[in-house]
Amino acid sequence: xxxxxxxxxxxxxxxxxxxxxxxxxxxxxxxxxxxxxxxxxxxxxxxxxxxxxxxxxxxxxxxxxxxxxxxxxxxxxxxxxxxxxxxxxxxxxxxxxxxxxxxxxxxxxxxxxxxxxxxxxxxxxxxxxxxxxxxxxxxxxxxxxxxxxxxxxxxxxxxxxxxxxxxxxxxxxxxxxxxxxxxxxxxxxxxxxxxxxxxxxxx
Length: 203
Known about the structure:
Helix content is 37%, strand content 19%. By secondary structure, it is an alpha/beta fold. The strands form 2 sheets. A 6-stranded parallel sheet has the order 3-2-1-4-5-6, sandwiched between helices. It has a two-stranded parallel ribbon with strand order 7-8. The model has no long low-confidence stretch (mean pLDDT 89).
């Protein structure tokens, strides 16, 4: 179709985010916390807003990512601030390490939902008492159904969700390794680096 290729590349993380919001049962009027302001976290925030969340807060340690979230009209906070906020209806851990898992669980109200989409570590420790006694629900989210991906493609090309602000630099194929290395070391601040293969767009 006519979808810009750069925005088309955003359809996959947006589909992950839409699946996460669906799994977590975000409803109109919900107060939602996203832990982690990387590409997936920023997309989950947008998907939650589209689902009708009354407010979306992004907890992120990196100042550049907090700035990006603020520029998209989300409330962006340092992780140390989470514990002092009123309880949320839904929290999503888009990082996936023990401290973020604990923070997400403790941030939701009794009977609230915590969605896990980040896979920072294969195993984490959670405060079981804080799950069982307040009867919080934990759900995982991975991948998506075809229809969700199709919806994400349609949404990526619309003005409903601002994805352009999340686009990072474009590098040639032979620069890809160095670009990913610089992302890993923190030298690059892009949320998403696009790799140009040089191939012609199919008709």
